[in-house]
Amino acid sequence: MNALFTRGDGPALPSRRQLLATVPCVALASMVPGAAWAQANYPNRPIRVIVPQPPGGGFDFVGRALADRLATPLGQAVVVENRTGSGTLVGTDAAAKAAPDGYTLLTGSVSNMVLNMGLYKNLPYDSLKDFEPVGLAVSYSYTLLARNGLPFNNLAELVAHAKANPGKLTYASAGNGSGQHVLAAALWNQAGVDIVHVPYRGAQAAYADLLGDRVDLFFDLTPTTRAHVETGKLKAIAVSSAARNPMQASVPTINESGVVKLDLESWFGYFAPSKTPPDVLERLRTELAKVIASPELMETFRKAGGTPMSIGVADAKAMLARDVQRWTGLIRAANISLD
Q1: For the structural domain made of 47-139+265-333, what CATH number should be given?
Q2: Where along the chain do its domains lie?
Q3: Mean pLDDT value across residues 36-40
Q4: pLDDT tens-digit profile of 273-301?
Q5: Which end of the chain is least crowded, N or C, by CB within 10 Å?
Q6: CA dihedral for 252, 253, 254, 258, sign (positive or negative)
Q7: Is 17 a residue whose pLDDT tops 90?
Q8: Is residue 294 helix, strand or coil?
Q9: Do 47-139+265-333 and 141-257 show the same overall fold?
Q10: Is 195 exposed, middle or buried (0-12, 13-18, 19+ CB in 10 A)?
């Protein structure tokens, strides 16, 4: 029997075997253009931004400021999801393991992308291997505060006092492994002084004891320290940025003190899981760069005490690698570990 049969004078029709044989090819052909279409038309559904801290803090402020403004050029909602737990570990790990399709982004900072790499020997993610930077938007310095009753007004005097009185001074932090803790511990270790760490559950409790003269020193983000310094309730000893912060222009940097060479700024931006398609990354990076460069957003960050950032992807990758290497060494030299 012929492979093709006819019905009357009509055209030859395929046999059942021939018809079935074509199905996989047709299905495959339809799948490839579909995937290409989805990628070419990215985004075609809402994008999720994971913030690995509760609402109200620096992570949340920056994450939402970028999300609100990125939605318009992308033509889709950009929804912030606060994924908390174990400091910043739970949310950051969730983003690392999310599908690399451009629909899950992470708000990253020095805390979860740099310091955690040194604080945990068994970290469930690797900042350098599991993420691609999309864009860094803003950085904030820390200011070292002292209670008014202490007999010094600059870092050199503080260190001299601490060397003459080992174990007598105390410093607060918002918790073990927080930026306030790591920065201070690295500074004291570099300066060769013994100052006792007093961890609190958050900054509010630390301020209560600092203002009440029950603890001596506290590093906190410069915008948060401003009100206490301007009202004269606390002394500003030094700022952690490489250059002076315009918000506290009279306060010298740690480097200017001549005691040690050390600087740290808490930068914030968006990251995507590694293996996100290059064209999707390019679209995200292009639109986010425009958002970050907008005068309105830059002014919003300045008013909040931040320093707007203008940095390319290659420089962002280099800075991340440099910061991870540097601070992992400083953290381990200061013998800080969370596992």
Answers
A1: 3.40.190.150
A2: 47-139+265-333, 141-257
A3: 57
A4: 999 999 999 999 999 999 999 999 999 99
A5: N
A6: negative
A7: no
A8: coil
A9: yes
A10: buried
Name the residue with tokens 């938007």.
Answer: 137
Alpha-carbon span 60 to 66, nearest angstrom: 10
> For residue 319, what pLDDT is reported?
96
Tokens of 334: 């200061």
The predicted model scores a pTM of 0.84
Do β-strands 104-109 and 170-173 pair in parallel, antiparallel, or remain unpaired? unpaired
CA distance 107 to 44: 21
Report d(CA 236, CA 88) in Å as an integer: 28
Bridge partner residues of 196 (DSSP): 170
Q: How far is CA 325 from CA 108, 264, 321, 330, 338, in A?
A: 17, 13, 6, 9, 18
Owner of token pair 């004891």: 209
What's the topology of domain 141-257?
A: D-Maltodextrin-Binding Protein; domain 2 (3.40.190)
- Altogether, the residues listed in the chain come to a count of 339
